[in-house]
Design goal:
- This is IBB domain-containing protein.
- InterPro entries: ARM-like, ARM-type_fold, Armadillo.
- It is a single chain.
- The chain is an all-alpha fold and 493 residues long.
- The longest helix has 20 residues.
- It starts with 15 loop residues before the first helix and ends with a helix.
């Protein structure tokens, strides 16, 4: 993920600015890679009580004749119960991919289902919507596109009174959105963004969670930055999303997770992050980070990592915006509180979800990159040593830890005095012995900063067999010359 860079110590003319520039180029590449990692998925909403009542029957493939008979009974059955049972049987059959293919090839089948969806009988409407939901869960784009005639009605029903029906429509729309560009092309002029903006004011948590899912699917479309996100940013959705992410007793984990990912996709599009910052996104996310750090200390295995991940990503990406520096970042928070909260989360990741450690370290990198105060907090809270302990986790984590230490070292001699020698000297000797070129390169960059600001560091490094460590890497011949030159400066200066 980080671009390969050979670890050479430049002549003294290579200053801190050039080092910073090279590091920022690698970080830009990493941000691009992370923006392209999307969470496209589909969800299936089934009523467990209904499934149990139906006896958990084995799903069978329906033939054309059976499908036609169920549709006929659903349309023209003499009793409402008979019509409802026919749709239930059809729905169960549509759980099988082969039945779905047969169904969409059958002339008039979708038209009949849409007719039942728009009937004035609530139970038939609900079962017809459940049939469409089963179709929407198909992995075949042709099945999703066959449901196009139903989309305008599904949108209309989002303004209805039944929260269960609205929830079902939202999950169905979310499944259709992710599968087909044709579906999205039809939904946009039909007004899906205003419909979702109206729906977000629902007091029902199940509706809000379903809405977050549908919106996240829409925001992940490849055409979203040009055709969708500008409309979303022009609506009331961002303000409502930030309200739903406000920490406090009303925060619901399921709802917050969905909308945190929505915010992440909007931020990654880079359409207008300055607007989000002016609307208070940094403030909200900063407070939520503190709240999550407190929560992981109180609660075990509560699924909090599902929310921590998008929140950390959102903060990391927003901090790279020029507007973040204009408003001073999370200025309302003491730097020490933010850093302390982040280290609590890093410890949580280490114990519960090690794969999320790079996310937390990426945020720490962005916090310390241009902020002496956050670097001061690392030192004043004695967090350099815990940071060094993370070097043994993985090479990816090691590169990020070393990058954060470079951020601290480049702030000048006063900061380097707190880093050197301590545990850093034996640690760098160990990392230079590794075979990973990125870890070695980042270690060498940290050494260069230390030698630049702490001339005595060169002599101490050599006394601890640092030269032998460097000799393991043929490409650092220039570095050896530089070490000797710095040693001579230290001895005769």
């Amino acid at each position: 993920m980080w671009s390969g860079r050979r670890g050479l110590l430049r002549p003294l003319g290579c200053g801190v600015e050039e080092l910073r520039c090279r590091r920022r180029e690698r970080e830009a590449a990493l941000r691009k890679a992370r923006r392209e990692q999307q969470l496209v998925s589909k969800r299936l909403l089934r009523d467990e009580a209904t499934e149990e009542a139906e006896g958990g029957c084995v799903v069978v493939i329906l033939g054309e004749a059976e499908i036609q008979e169920f549709l006929r009974l659903a349309q023209r059955g003499t009793e409402e119960k008979e019509r409802e049972r026919a749709l239930v049987s059809l729905r169960r059959g549509l759980q099988h991919p082969e039945t779905q293919q047969i169904f969409i090839r059958l002339e008039g089948s979708i038209r009949t289902l849409v007719g039942l969806l728009t009937s004035n009988q609530a139970l038939l409407q609900l079962e017809a919507a459940r049939c469409l939901h089963e179709l929407s869960h198909s992995e075949q784009s042709a099945v999703a596109e066959a449901c196009l005639p139903a989309t305008s009605y599904l949108l209309t029903y989002l303004s209805g009174h039944s929260s269960d029906f609205i929830e079902l429509c939202l999950y169905t729309l979310g499944n259709l959105i992710v599968e087909s560009e044709a579906v999205r092309r039809q939904l946009l002029p039909q007004g899906i963004v205003p419909a979702l903006a109206a729906c977000i004011q629902s007091p029902r948590l199940t509706v809000l969670e379903a809405l977050g899912y549908a919106l996240s699917q829409l925001l992940q479309a490849k055409e979203a930055p040009e055709k969708i996100i500008p409309s979303v940013l022009g609506s009331t959705l961002p303000q409502h999303i930030l309200q739903l992410l406000q920490p406090g007793p009303k925060l619901n984990l399921g709802v917050a997770v969905e909308f945190a990912w929505c915010l992440h996709y909007i931020i990654c599009s880079q359409v207008n992050n300055a607007l989000l910052i002016t609307q208070g996104a940094l403030t909200t996310l900063g407070l939520l980070l503190l709240d999550l750090a407190a929560a992981v200390q109180r609660t075990k295995n509560a699924g909090l990592e599902l929310l921590v991940c998008p929140v950390v990503r959102c903060l990391s990406n927003l901090l790279t915006e020029a507007a973040a520096e204009t408003v001073g970042g999370p200025v309302h928070l003491r730097d020490e509180r933010v850093v302390a909260a982040l280290f609590i989360l890093l410890q949580f990741f280490l114990q519960e979800q090690p794969s999320l450690l790079p996310e937390g370290l990426w945020l720490l990198n962005n916090l310390t990159a241009n902020s002496p105060s956050f670097c001061t907090s690392l030192i004043s809270l004695d967090l350099i040593e815990p940071l060094l302990h993370l070097l043994s986790v993985s090479n990816v984590v090691s590169v990020l830890v070393l990058t954060v230490l470079c951020n601290v070292a480049e702030k000048g001699p006063a900061y380097c005095q707190h880093l050197w020698p301590g545990l850093l000297l034996p640690t760098l000797l160990d990392t230079l012995a590794l075979s990973d070129t990125e870890v070695v390169g980042q270690s060498l960059e940290l050494l260069q900063l230390l030698f630049l600001y702490q001339p005595g560091a060169a002599q101490a490094f050599l006394q601890q067999s640092g030269l032998q460590a460097l000799q393991r890497h043929e490409e650092v011949a220039q570095l050896q010359d530089r070490v000797h030159a710095l040693q001579q400066t230290a001895l005769h200066g």
